[in-house]
Amino acid sequence: MVKVIRQGVYFMEGKLIKESQAFMTSDKKERAVKNTVAYAVSSAHGGGVQNFDALLSAEFEDVFRTADAMGLRQLAVKNVLFSGARNDPDFAYSVAKTYGAELVPEGLSAPAEYVRERIAKSGAMLFGTSAFPCGALGAVCVRGNEGDYLRQLLGKPFKTSFPETVAVYFRGKPGKGVGPTDIALSVLKAVRTAGNFAAGKLLECFGPGLANLSMDFRNTVDSMLCASDCFAAVWATDGKTQEYFETYSRAGDYKPLAPREPAFYDGGVVVDLSRIEPMIAFYPEIYPVRELLESPAETSEKLRAVAQKQCAEVRMRLDSVCDALKEGTPFFAEMYLDEDAANYETVSEVAELLRGKAVGGATAFNVYPASAAVFRALIGSGALETLLSAGVAVNGYACAGSGLEAVDGVPVAGAVVLDARTMAATAANGGILTSALGSASHRRFKKFQFDENVYRSRVVCEAGSGGPLRYGNVRPIPEMGALPGALPLQVRAAETPASFIPTRADGEQPAAPENDVPGEAAGAVVFTKHAQGAPWPQAIAMREENLRAVFAAGFEETYRTHLIDWGILPFVCAKGEIGAGDFVHLENIREAVSRGEERVIAKAIGKKKTRDVALMLGPLTEEQRAILLAGSRVGYERERRE
Questions:
Q1: Suppose 481 and one of 50, 62, 516, 551 were both cysteines; which one would form an S-S bond, judging by CB atoms 3.0 to 4.6 Å apart?
Q2: What's 481's DSSP letter?
Q3: What is the DSSP-derived secondary structure letter of residue 417?
Q4: What is the pTM of this model?
């Protein structure tokens, strides 16, 4: 079904050959590394310093209010922004108008689907603040944080050592009733069993099996591969890719891409499509549907063991599954074909599988088409009428009920994941789990017709005015003072990074920072554990609450960079040296930072005693020193522009 090769492989003679069996010299291997699609795309965009064709974000509020505070008014690269619940609509529109960014309003399209339909090109390199999988079109989308996004707006280089590349080699043809989610789950199961094999790696998908996969099929597999924790994925392109671009009136965005023989990869995953069967995931556990149906008692015990390791909500869900398995009763109160998987082909096939049938019992089946373009095409093809006649709720109509839910989309903890075809078979059987293996629609659905009018009147795409931003309910970045000569600190709290949530995360606006002058104490916080994983917006919120230092046992480098960007001093100190309520005085701190001192002696005043404490600031680059002295990257960049 899926075989993982945990050593170097060559693509040669039309197949994957282990490095140990290829007998290639070192100079031939060096040349073969450059024959991959991944290398071709990366090298065309600067290699180790990537230059991106477009920047993509659905969490852009903090980025652009920061850019505004810096005085930035022009964008050097195309920006595509997706408005949603996290963004004030007035502010979002003002950003698009001021900077000339392309703004996609909420509800018009799933962000990844819009990127595939309108933005991605074969051979392109994109940057996104969340997952925007478009690898099946031959594009690489690199994911980063909001701080990385801002640096791209400022023209800073995105430096990365290109990750190891793994060949995902498809062969064979999927059987009837087997869908893209079944294939993706089979791959995820294999790479996780092999020690999270795909984590941090770039997956390059190709092979003779691609000819048997439509573009909608490929796009769904590609979307779900991000759950493998891979760096990114990119696929070889072919005539079907070309036809996809032509359908969207973008023929010029197609480029043929394929590995050249011999091509070297750091590992391989061989996927025999003909041996894939319907799968079900109680994420992160993945099983064949057949296994659950053939051995319900045995599977129930396995799931109960899994449930004990989960949170209370997940335990309750898995217990419901176990009971349903033993009793042969309906699994699901609701099933969702969400926007990550509800492309035109998949929804059309579900409609055909349910033609003349009805969603029975207490199970509701909800379909969320991936975009307005897909929705419009489903109306024109008659598929929407078929779904409604079968009792399917389309686009969220009549979404009611509670209980165990099944989804077809990117798997997350606590979710039960099924392919849309198995969901259709299950829905038609009253919610009792039913394999779709062997089932197939008896009618061929109409070819997708793209109507660009669904976007023309709604997507904002104007030339940048360069004028002032209209903030609406969004608070501008307040003035942030430079680092003073001496810095008195009042330690407000002792937390862990995961539990520290600044005031503004609750929807309240923090008070404006006080002037940072000697004699007036700024805030500080102690992280009782190694500081890692905190998002860039959290660092902004901390500084807006006038926090000027964090004390921790250690820092993950990305989080340390976030703190420095906002003028927050990241000090490493011994556990218990500083606690909540302490007053810490940093004498001559500006001079110490200016000289690049890595160790600072501070005076800590507690309730019972005063003592000297050694704090490690660690090595700082010249730019980081300048940022801290200016008080934040905002001040630093503004000074450079003035």
A1: 516
A2: P
A3: E
A4: 0.90
